[in-house]
Design goal:
The protein contains eleven helices and 18 strands. It has helices spanning 20-38, 61-70, 94-102, 120-123, 179-182, 194-202, 304-307, 315-319, 346-349, 351-357, 395-405; strands at residues 75-84, 130-139, 143-150, 153-160, 163-168, 173-178, 209-219, 222-231, 238-246, 252-259, 267-275, 293-296, 324-326, 333-337, 360-365, 368-374, 379-383, 387-391. It is globular.
């Protein structure tokens, strides 16, 4: 299947050019968003395999990007299959506990104050590994529903007007907040659909990126163009991003991120069924079931993460000890100083230090020594003196960044 735009590429220079700083920051956000959710969320799944190559009018990559930008689908319902293969070690569920603890959800406080199992900031972290099936529905900006289907159970997140409800049928627990409360909880807006992932990926497009249209496909019974995004630079762990774009509406129907190291996709999210008709109004109705434990968002236990507020002049950068983005393009690396808090050593951290270190590679250089923790997409170097370097780059790139900082 020959590409429609064979060797021609589109860059951000052909459209509105975002500021350099925002481009570099966006490139760090893309893999982190994927890793933190969802990163959210995907191994090619047979049910998502493209079928047929529909005959569609030729378009350029720039025209297809503009079509995505103009897409304004307000009403839809469907099923999304989402798989994530970051190559994380099997910690027997420990990784989910760690991530939910970071977000202030269950496991963050322990005991009776550990929060609600229906809190979206904790529940949606389950999308970080494995394959999941989601049912999604939307009727304008004020009514959305996402249901995570599990074995003999279901988790639903419903936004209806000012109310945000989370319901975990397994534990019969309910989480409730208003949109004002929910606006401060970014995990509730974690990427879960092809459109969410595509919006993040397009923020990373600049002159270090090749963007082409590589033929057509059919996804969930709909004709689509295939947009392919690739880093021009070596050293990135991102191999390519492929987006199936609905030919009629411009909405992304499938998102696939493959690593430069080869193998199955790191993230693969796509509709297996989709309709752009108005969902029934009852789809968004929710009343807490009888006997359910209801937790209000403003009653959640206070944790350091929930107490944090953006600083007036530094925001996230100030909170993380002066977050800096070093390097260019897809080789950008986020660097910050934890203030000397490196990994526990054998003497200081006992078994914990050895346990954490066993999942990483020990490295040494002019910067000192440290540990590199690797996934198939995002890698991070934590030096013994508490400096952190992270990005969708290789281990060698992280070590070089630490060397250059000395």
């Amino acid at each position: 299947m020959a590409p429609i735009d064979s060797d021609d590429s589109t860059t951000a220079g052909q459209g509105a050019e975002p500021r350099a700083g925002r481009r570099r920051a966006a490139r760090y956000v893309v893999p982190v968003a994927v890793m933190g959710v969802a990163a959210a969320t995907i191994g090619l799944v047979p049910a998502l395999a493209d079928s047929g190559d529909p005959d569609l009018p030729e378009v350029t990559a720039q025209q297809l990007i503009e079509k995505i930008a103009r897409s304004d689908v307000q009403q839809l319902s469907g099923t999304v299959r989402i798989s994530t293969d970051l190559g994380l070690p099997d910690l027997g569920g420990l990784e989910s506990g760690l991530m939910s603890g970071m977000s202030g959800g269950p496991g963050a406080g322990g005991g009776d104050d550990e929060g609600s199992s229906a809190d979206p900031s904790a529940k949606l972290t389950e999308l970080v590994t494995g394959t999941h099936t989601l049912r999604v529905a939307a009727d304008g900006p004020d009514r959305q529903k996402l249901s995570l289907l599990e074995d003999a159970a279901e988790y639903s997140l419903i936004h209806d007007g000012k109310d945000v409800w989370g319901y975990d049928s397994k534990s019969n627990e309910v989480y409730h907040s208003t949109t004002q409360d929910g606006a401060e909880r970014p995990a509730e807006k974690a990427p879960a659909t092809p459109k969410d992932f595509t919006e993040q990926a397009l923020k990373a497009v600049d002159d270090t990126t090749s963007v082409t249209v590589d033929g057509t496909a059919q996804v969930a019974g709909r004709d689509a163009y295939r947009l392919v995004i690739k880093p021009r630079q070596s050293g990135s762990t991102v191999g390519a991003i492929s987006v199936a774009v609905d030919a009629k509406t411009g909405m992304p129907l499938k998102f696939t991120l493959t690593p430069s190291g080869g193998g199955a996709a790191v993230v693969d999210a796509g509709f297996t069924r989709v309709s752009f008709s108005k969902p029934d109004a009852s789809t968004f109705d929710f009343t807490p079931p009888k006997g359910a434990k209801v937790t209000e968002g403003d009653e959640m236990p206070e944790t350091p993460e929930r107490k944090q507020k953006p600083k007036s002049d530094g925001g996230l950068a100030e909170e993380l000890g002066g977050l800096k983005v070093v390097g260019e393009g897809w080789n950008a690396i986020a660097a910050f100083d934890t203030g000397g808090q490196g990994l526990p050593t054998a003497s200081a951290g006992g078994d914990l230090g050895g346990f954490l270190g066993s999942f990483g590679d020990q490295v040494k250089g002019d910067f000192g020594s440290g540990t590199v923790f690797k996934t198939r997409l995002v890698n991070a170097l934590i030096t013994d003196d508490g400096k952190v370097y992270a990005g969708a780059v290789t281990k060698d790139a992280l070590v070089k960044a630490a060397e250059a900082a000395k």
